[in-house]
Design goal:
It is built from 3 helices and no strands. It is mainly α. Helix 2 packs antiparallel against helix 3.
Length: about 70
């Protein structure tokens, strides 16, 4: 998901997406432990997506626009 798409979402939608991606991350971790996950690069992608969502949520809550002055 691109940052421009995330920035157009409401705060509640972003929070819901964060919950969903964290759940996905937890499921990926369980699949690694049980040996069902062969493509471990998915972990990095999902972790990055969670961080991206949280960063934009923080920017929205503090009123930062993300633009360079």
């Amino acid at each position: 998901m691109k940052t421009t798409e995330i920035r157009t979402m409401s705060v509640e939608e972003i929070r819901g997406r964060i919950d969903d991606t964290r759940e996905e991350l937890m499921n990926l971790r369980f699949r690694i432990v049980t040996g069902q996950l062969t493509d471990t690069s998915q972990l990095k992608k999902v972790r990055r997506q969670v961080a991206q969502l949280e960063t934009i949520l923080h920017e929205l809550s503090t009123g930062e626009s993300g633009k360079v002055k």
